[in-house]
Fold:
Amino acid sequence: MNEGNSKREILTPRERFGLLLIDENPDRCNIIPLITSHAAHIARIPLSKYYTDGKAMAQAQIIALEEYRHDALSFFSEVGIIAEAMGSDFDYPDDDLPVLKTPALTKRSLSSIDIPDPKNDKRLPVYLEALEYAYATVGDKIPLLAYVPAPFTTGMMLSVPNTFLIQTIRHPDLVHDIMKICLQAAIEFCYHIINAGGLPIIVDPLASSSVISPKAYEEFALPYERKLIDFLHRYDLDIILHICGETEPILELLPNTGADLISLDKVDISLALDKLSKKMRIVGNFDTSKIAFSSPSEIEKEAKEMVRKGMVSSKGYIPSTGCEVPIRTPIENVKAFINSSKEIAWYWD
Amino acid sequence: MYKDPKPKKITMDEWSVRFKNIDNKTIKKFVYYNNHDWGLYLQPPATFMVYGTRELRRLRFDNSLAALRMWGFVFNESERLFRARQSGKKIVATMGDLGTVSIIVMAFPDCIPFYPECIWWTPFFNESTVLLDLASELGAPEAACFSRAALAAFVKKAYFPKPDYIFASTGATCDDYSCIMQSIEHLGYDFMWLEVPLRRSPAKHVSMDSLVKTKNGFEYPRRFEEYLIKEYEKVWQKMVEITGIDDQNLLMVSIKKANQVRTLVEKIKRTTYQAGNAPFPALELMTIEFGNLYGYADMDEWIRILEMIYETIVERTKKNIGIISEDAIPIAWVNPTADPYLLDYVERIGLRVVDTEYVINQALVEIDEQIEPFRALAQSFMQASLIGSTAQRISSINKAMRTGKIEGILITNMLGGSHCAMETKLMERLLKDKPVLAIDVPAPFGITEQIKTRLQAFAEVLHERRK
Structure:
């Protein structure tokens, strides 16, 4: 557990994460690049197997852990999983992620859509199986992050995305109705994730400012993120909210979600620290195109610069990528990110 | 407000279902250190599972709100200690004596004592060898008691904050843990050693020894008590030095509080063990008994929890409803099991724990509030059944066996601890006519089918004897 630096790592990732959550500085920062489907690439299994076979997903995550020695496993493939379980159809390319084919609301009315059963419906059981396998295998040493699409993102996956966006203007009541059922579906999925040993991380990429206006975010996305996080706070869990894409226009709204940690993508980290670091722990935000296409030495340099800035955060900081590590990112690049971050991310002497 | 269902032991998943019905008002009602901003602790077992407490998937728990409250509070202890430090309280590790030094520390305002050796359960609850492996690396080998987990925890600084001071008791304490405490001292912590004497009858040829006879008939030379008083005064003086406060009235208050807990726990145990149907599970009861040591770092809240548990038990007893089979065979349990699963398991195979000797009897004895406080503490310690011979240690169990209150004795050996490795053989000899099963508790996640089979066979033997 000691690649890339000369200091001995005395804590397991789980212990390190635990200290962060009780506002104590761990030995060093938790370093958690969002290694999701990239794990399939590391494990050399087809993506279609990764997202349809829970054991394969868990094994891929564990193989990636052995390769990289990062600080949390990330159970995720794509944002359509809840929408699929609610009736949207997806294509499963052999070596690519599922693609939305027929949104549920183009086939059925909202009233005919049921809250899915995570133990039985579509690929939700795949995630639960993956969590259970990983929890039994490495759960004592590392946190398991289970990505749960937030209601707004799921809502857009139930509809033709363009139509959905237009409805936020023309039929806001209908969008709220969609949000309500998507919220219930997310809560039910979170409930099962918790019982499988996973820590839900809420992802709402389609609510970013790359897709919707701050006003629409405040009206349609934020209240349901908040309700979902409120539900999770009943369990006293510390919740990460991840919004990839542009978030600068909504930075000041983010504390209102109640999230304990905020994972950001395309935003100046200094600005994010300035506006948020007294209220939330910051996660982020290495440019994913750089991790995919830059040289390891360039990545090392930029990662160190990012970590130096992030570590001033008073409530804690997790060096991470702004979004998922692209599937076919070279291993050396990911290692360059993790190991260079490990070199300088120390709190303890 | 949540209403308790019919008493039953339920799984973690079942608790999760039930937790859905607990309203936010109830969740927010229970807090530690009276802090409503960060002191919430009423969570279902699933919460602690998410944070790595893996054995919870296999255990079954009492389904009362009181039990849920207790588990939430107990599993929250690590967080509580860190929050205590963050809010300016002093954290004092009291090691080895298991029951008395903590009362002295607690007398000082904003000083929180804790027993690091209690972390020996963590590897089992987490089904993890992380702490034990590191302890081995640090020189406490595999053959040492599981309390060696404490050594690793001191190095990791992730399970409790660095203590402001450490009091370490040796002498009539665990020899393995004395070695572990030495290793902890070598890490560079601020330390004070004190010695607690083993109770023994005065040597006949030393006529100057005046004799003290305890309420339960044990004897020891007066000089032991005087010695112990001096040791406790040393602790007091160090705490005065640390806090700048020197008011022995506070020690009286602390003793009263300790007695309040001890009395409550005695009532809980008596009511439970004497009830026709077992109203509360053995695992929860062991957890309750160990709360006597330091109230899981918040004595006031722990007292409120005990009161709620006692109410629950009384109500169940009145209705004569229990949580295990009515014809379960009453047994005594000697030594706390490092693996909590065993306590749950015996109830699944028709046994019922009605008497215990968990090596902390010195924390169960009522302290005399009418005499000078240090003497009262010394006397309460010296009259504990543990602090003497093996025969004295098991005297109450032997008596209960003779009167038929218990029908078998289960000894769970603590690997490496002298109270097991050697003493088990002595106990077996003293109990030779009785059905005794002694088992070695294996490393985390090590309860094999072979061990289960031995326990099942023991249960069958006891059932056969009834016919």
Chain A has a mean pLDDT of 96.
